[in-house]
Amino acid sequence: MNRLTQVLAAAAAALAIGAGATYAVVDRVSHVAEPNPPGDRVRAAIAGVRDDHVYVADDGRSMLSTAGEHHLQQVIGKRRLPVYVVVWQPSRNAGYDHYIEAAEQIVAGLPAPATVVLWQGPEDSTVQTSEDYRIVEEDGIHDEPSYLGDADKRLTEWVDALPDRPLEPWDRFDYYGGTGGGIAFALVIGVPSLVGLWIVIGIVRRITGRRFRNVGFGS
Amino acid sequence: MRGIPADTPAANSVDGLAATLRKDPVLVSPLFGNGHTTQVRAGFHHLIDDAGFPVYVVMTTAPAGLQAGRPADELATLLHTRLGDGVYLISLDATGYSSTERTFGDGLPSTSVVYSTNTKMTGDSGGFNKSVSQAGSFARDLDVMIANGKITRKDYDSYATSQVWRSPPEWDPVGPEPPTTGDYVAKGGLTFVLVAGAVFLVLRNLMRWRETANPGRVAAAKKRREQAALANAAPDLAGLRRQVETELTAVAARLGSDAGAPSDERAQGSYDNARRLLERTGDTERDLLDLVGALVLTRIAGRALEPRGRKQSRLYRACFFDPRHGEGTRRRSVPVAEATLAVPCCPACAEARAADLTPLTVRRGRRRVPYYETAGVWASTGFGAFVDDLWQEVGDDLRERRR
Fold this sequence. Notes:
CATH topology of the largest domain in chain A: Diaminopimelate Epimerase, Chain A, domain 1
Number of helices of chain B: 14
Shape of chain A: elongated
Order of helices and strands of chain B: HEHEHEEHHHHHHHHEEHEEHH
Distance between the termini of chain A: 18 Å
Distance between the termini of chain B: 128 Å
Largest interface: A-B, 80 and 71 residues
Number of domains of chain B: 3
Structural class of chain B: alpha/beta
Helix content of chain B: 40-55%
Number of strands of chain B: 8
CATH architecture of the largest domain in chain A: Roll
Strand content of chain A: 5-15%
Helix content of chain A: 40-55%
Number of strands of chain A: 6
Strand order of the largest sheet of chain B: 1-2-3-4
Largest sheet of chain B: 4 strands, mixed
Oligomer: heterodimer
Largest sheet of chain A: 4 strands, mixed
């Protein structure tokens, strides 16, 4: 095997093994842990808002009357807004660890883009949007309603202030800065590491009586 | 209601609640159902069926009319007056930890067995374990009461592992986040650079590993292997004698033609003593050192007869470790007795590790020892390593031996 053939064979093997390792790492990176499965209370809320956008649990009826529920349905439905409202009492015994987790589970169960208002009263209420979307940032638009006071009035005020397309795509923070940053990171870390490996190999070569560089004594 | 067990009709009064419990002693709202309300209700029914005493489970919002202080205890008391003796498990607060377990009536299990069992199992009298939900805690305590404290560890711990009774998994506020483009490029790219680069470097070195070896070291290693074989094999005394005679014949021829040269005395003396050694030795192993000495003297004589030039000024010194290795063109330190001496040696011995040296050995009792650890002229002179006029030392020794 002449020198050129050796180099080509080593390069081919390096490319093949490198590509295999890269495929394995990318596959691992793309595997995201599944979120906790929703319990029956959350599943009922998803089913409850899917068609008419407003769901009031039996335990939440004291916070939003049937008339208020119908009014909100009309306000949201008239403009076909991707807004969903769930009203229930807070609980730590309903199958989720935190009320924001419950809101995330509800919005994940709805077609994107969607935003869910989980109304539990003045303290533990929240608004969650579909992954990679957020409420548009404009003057006069709040990313969540005030949770103090009558739920029907407060929610109507907030919904009325929303534009017709209240959600916009949102690029999440990319730690590596996108494609260019990722390539730069790979080179900045990878190349010095290879130089280190080259030095280690050179030291081994010296210990075994060879020249530091990969050349023979006739070179 | 869609996809959820029908909520218990909110009993807005204690009387309404009591009426509901007479029909079904298990009243669990989805607010308390741990995400598995149907299974939780079924689990309580299963336990109550085995109990043999009345049990009422109330996990719902509080009915109207209770005092603010301890509503769960107050409700237990009010229900007792309406439903009679039994075990009452009541929780009215879905966001707090306010609940009660009460036993009314003789012959019913005391809640003290729950406390003692929980203390034994968890070290906490309340059996507090964040891995068990409120419903799971009630069910486990009821199980303990039914078993009168004789619950197995496995059964007790099962409430913390069963999906129906355990607490939901801990929520991670920041995850799981789907990967970004940068995640893919950075981690995939780094992997490719490192793995492909490392494979290429290693393969290229492996492919040329033999080709790039130091030829001098390769030759020395080969020589060492040959010398090790020589040291381990039985000495070929007859062959050694033939080699000495051949070289001695050549020296004799040159002695005749080089008469009058300045090195005559060393050449002649070395030749004569080599000849004497050959004449008085046989081919047994005890003659080995004398035969090797004859070889060294022959080569000293030969070197002395060489024409003036590069080697003429240099006295022939054999490899200290084994003169059969050849001329000692290099030097290395070696511990001899209590001293460390710099001795001439062949290139292979010069580069060998101390453990790899293969010195000329002689039999001493059952074992073999290096010749320089024995007594005699060869050990004291190191076959010429320590003296310039080996022929004289050998001549004196031969005269001594004759006496």
